[in-house]
Structure formats: structure tokens, C-alpha cells
Amino acid sequence: MLPSPTPGGRRELPRVIGIVQASALVIGTIIGTSIFVQPSEITRSVPTVSGILVAWALAGTLTMLFALTCAELASAFPATGGVYVFLREAYSRRLAFLWGWSSVWIIHTGVIAAIAMVCARYIAYFVPAAADHERVVAVAVVLAVSALNYAGVRIGAVVLTLSTAAKLLAIAVLLVAGLAVAPPAAITTWHPGLAELRTVPLTQLLLGVGAGLFAFGGAHAVTYVAGETTDPARTVPRALTIGTLVVTLCYIALNALYLYVLPLDTVRASPRVAADVAAVLIGPAGGSAVAALVVLSGVGTITGIALAGPRMYLSMAADGMMPAWLDAVHPRFRTPHRAILLQATWAIVLVLTGQYATLFARVVYVEWFFFALLAAGLFVLRGRADYRPSTRMWGYPITPAIFILASSAVVVSQLVAQPRDAIIGAAMVAAGWPVGVWFERRRRQ
Q: CATH classification of 19-388+397-444 is 3.40.718.10, yes or no?
């Protein structure tokens, strides 16, 4: 059975995603392999235990404020396209196009490439020879997950739900082992406190928050599939709130465990910190089990992005702001198959040409620049008489103002720390402006 056609003739995607799958999409997309790797990146910027835990807490708080922003906007505009739709309604098609353009070339594809590289790193735990062919393994991961999403949203949703359960199991195993079976000799004593926190420069703390935000990325993915969600005005806001709360609690607890079990220098140097902690707590078998769950977790995260991103490209094409050939739903699988192929192709290019640290840093400062604009859009929309969201952001106008300032600070810190890469990223975003102008002019003809 084919999707029913819209009044304009384009076929709609089927509504098959409920609250469980939507919450799993939030949790599964956020909790990726990054939480099993990113602590090492944060410890390189933040030198103390107190600073590290505060950086994670601040990243979680920012993500919750962003989730509340998206919840309000999703309840007002429950259509396939997510952030693209929100920016279009708040500002203009041109600005919304820049988000979609950045997602194609930097954000979504960058996340897929980075997570695939981490999957390859953990696969090498079982197949040491894979370490010499990390990029090849990462490409294989991208191809496999993209093919899965090409074959249907139901299959992708099932895999995402199962992988979400697997990653929560991995976190639970580590936490229980840390509380129950950790040998005293393996535990490093640490005493976090305010005095220790004061020794961390603000610039370094902001870099740590930025690195943490990469591990929190993806909360908005559920907004892209609103057109395939049952009762999206209610389901999407609830999924955002539930998912972000669960993730924040898991992240803080898990990082406390890492720092409790391993010396700070070991965490900083470890390429597979979760497996190293499991090996200390449970033994080699525990390290292998957690490594396997991390790979499955990474597959789930890529599935979430591969599921969400192409829906936005489909929406943009239907809006006349992407090539018309992307506005297509597969007649058998009922998926945006051409958009999936476009995303997979560029993600593979990034895998073959990029480095993990460069990819995640570029994603953070570009993505959170747009998120700050999105929160500012609340002020624009609330001044309109026809704006009627069923869910409103708590603490308005203070909370979105805090979010805008904090997000801007994180973006600036990343730009100052990596000016060369910042210029490259900014140039890639700016290059989309004339392209957006061209699409809009052609659309009006």
C-alpha cells in the first residue's frame, strides 16, 4: 500500500511512530558512542574532577532548555522537517535553508561520520586488524545503517528501540558493577568540591561544555519525523522531555563512575574508556560485553540521524528549497530514499577525509549557533496573534534568554580555540546563502 497523496500530489509518509518509539528516538539518538568516548575529550580541556562533572551538568542543562524550546515549537508546527520548519516559520525560508544546507554538509553527516569512526574503534576491540582499517570499517557501518533506513521506517524504528535498550543496559551494567563488585584496590580516591572547581579557567570549562554537547546532540531528531508520529503535538513534546531527563541522569552517573574507577590521566588517554572501566570492574569479559554494546549503541545513533535527516531534506524539497529529485518517497519502502542516499554519500566522504575531533568540534559550533537562533525565534513567534502552541516553554522569557547567552558563549569558545577550522566551517555555512537565494527565486517563478 502506498502513502496517501497530499492535496499537492506528493505522497505522505505513514504515521507509525508512537510515544515509546519517539522517546527511544530521543534517547537513542542522544546516547550514542560519544558517551563512551567523549569523556576523554572533555578531560583534555577540563583538568579537574569537579570541573568535568560541572561541564557535563551544564551540557545537560543546556540540552534540556533546548528540548523545551523544541517541545513548544513542535506543538505549534507538528510537521515533518523539524528545525527547518521552525526556522522557516520564525524567520524566513532563506535562514531555514542555511540550517538544512549545514545539516547536509556539516551537522548530520558529521555526526554520522564521527560515530561511525567510534564504532570502528570499538570493533577493533574484537578484531585488532580493524584498527589499521578504521576508515574502511566506518564506511561499512554508514552503508549498512543507511541501507537499513532505506528499507523502511518500521525496521529503522525497531532497530533504534532495541539499540536504545542495549545502550541503557550497557550503562546499567557499568553502574551496578561500580557499586557492587568494584575491588577497593581499583578505586581512585577523589574529592570534588568548590575549591577544586575554582581552579578551572572559564574558557576551559566552556570548551568542556562544548565537547559534552556533542554527546548530548540529537534531541531534536524526533521533530524531523513529526509527520510520521501519531498525535505529534502531544507525543513529540513528551518524548523530548522524557528522553532528555533520562539521558542527563545517565551521563552524570556514568562519568562519575569513570572518574571514580580510573585515574584522571587514564581517562584522558583512553580511546575506549567504557571498555577500560568494564575491564577493571568485571574483567576482560566485561570489557568485551561493553564494547559490543557500544557498537550496537553507535548503530542506534546513526540509525536515528539517518532516520531523521532525510525527512528534513524531503520537506525542504517539497518547499522548493532543495532539488526537486529529493522530493520523492520510495513506492515500495515508503522512505525518502534519494535523501538517504545523498546523506550517506557525503557522510562517507567525511569519514575518508576527516578526523574525529575536528568533526565533533565543527558540528558543535555550527549546530549551537542555529539553536541559539531557534530560541530567539520564540520571542518572534510569541508576538504573533496566530501562534498557538499547545505546549509552552517553562520560565519564558528568562529561560530562552539564558539558553541564548549560554549557547553563544559555547560557540564563541569553540571558535576562539580552533580559529582555522572555524573559518572553514563558517565559509561552508555562508556558501549556502547564495544557493538559498537561488532556490527561493526559482520557487517564486
A: no
